[in-house]
Design goal:
57% of the residues lie in helices and 3% in strands. The chain has 13 helices and three strands, in the order αααααααβββαααααα. The chain is mainly α and 314 residues long. InterPro entries: DNA_brk_join_enz, Integrase-like_cat_sf, Integrase_catalytic, Tyrosine_recombinase_XerCD.
Length: 314
């Protein structure tokens, strides 16, 4: 009989063949199946999930709700192969969704992040070039971390200065233009990559061993850079710690773009629909949320609304 970890290998291989990026899910589910295998569980069940939850470490209900969702999706698939499988109820963990207030980086902080990433140590220097290029790319394009990591070589057209994002969060492909400085940095990284690594994966961003750069590596190296420049406190045992996230680079791009529109006197509503498409949001409301979440944007919106009322009354 196959172990839970062996079943997980099959599940991940199937979903990846369908185009899903499962680097984060794998990290969680691998710990779940390893715990089950090591503690005598040969099938997924409610007792297994609750036992794992009780011994896995502290986290809030929102986090455990997401983990439960990952386990349930795995269990639904496994039930087709092992009729002993019990899909844990979605009511085991009740979450209250509260969208996290974004951290908006100052331009100097972004510059410091990119510069510090360029100082990360490695035998041949590819680690520094990899993460410096990736962090900078996210900051200037606002793409998701998963979208940047999923870029294949064919998706990076340096001659036309266009990136093609495929199999995105909402299942739609889209293209993003990049400017001269970004093209030059991408070309520099690609040249160094091709010179240093003989056997390479098809992905654009790869590590020194030739394997694709992943979500865990991105978050680990971003946390290390953030600690080095004082954005996060020092941590023991290679823990990430708390503080601004790599995803906040995307939020910062969106907020600075909207701020520029306000200052230029543009039609914000019309521009926001364009930004929603650019960012790959499923609905415009996810883009308009930035105005509510960032006090400076809310103040600018209120001032503009007040001016319109006064102009209408005069």
């Amino acid at each position: 009989m196959k172990t839970l970890s062996q079943r997980l290998d099959e599940y991940l291989a199937l979903r990846r063949s369908m185009g899903f990026d499962l680097s984060f899910d794998e990290r969680v589910l691998r710990k779940f199946t390893n715990y089950g295998d090591e503690n005598g569980f040969d099938r997924i069940s409610t007792p297994l999930f609750l036992d794992w939850k009780g011994n896995y470490g502290s986290a809030d209900n929102n986090t455990w709700s997401r983990r439960l969702g990952m386990v349930r999706r795995f269990a639904f698939w496994l039930a087709e192969h092992d009729d002993r499988t019990e899909v844990p109820s979605s009511q085991l963990v009740i979450a209250r969704y509260r969208r996290r207030v974004p951290y908006i980086y100052a331009p100097t902080q972004i510059a410091n992040i990119v510069a510090e990433a360029g100082r990360l140590p490695s035998p041949y220097g590819l680690r520094a070039a990899l993460w410096q290029t990736l962090f900078g790319l996210i900051a200037v394009t606002g793409m998701r971390v998963s979208e940047a990591l999923s870029l294949d070589r064919q998706d990076v057209d340096l001659d036309r200065a266009v990136l093609t994002l495929r199999n995105t969060k909402n299942g739609k492909d889209r293209q993003l233009p990049v400017i001269g400085d970004t093209v030059a940095q991408l070309a520099h990284y690609a040249e160094l990559r091709d010179r240093l690594v003989a056997k390479q994966a098809s992905r654009f961003f790869i590590k020194e061993d030739g394997e694709p750069a992943g979500d865990c590596g991105a978050r680990y190296n971003f946390a290390q850079v953030s600690r080095n420049i004082g954005l996060r406190s020092p941590q023991a045992y290679n823990r990430h710690g708390l503080g601004p996230r790599i995803h906040d680079l995307r939020h910062t791009f969106a907020v600075h773009t909207i701020l520029d529109w306000f200052r230029d006197g543009r039609d914000i509503e019309a521009e926001m629909y364009k930004l929603s498409t650019y960012l790959g949001h499923s609905e415009p409301k996810h883009t308009f949320w930035y105005i509510e979440a960032v006090p400076e944007l809310m103040q600018l919106a209120a001032e503009r609304a007040e001016r319109r009322v006064l102009e209408g009354a005069s």
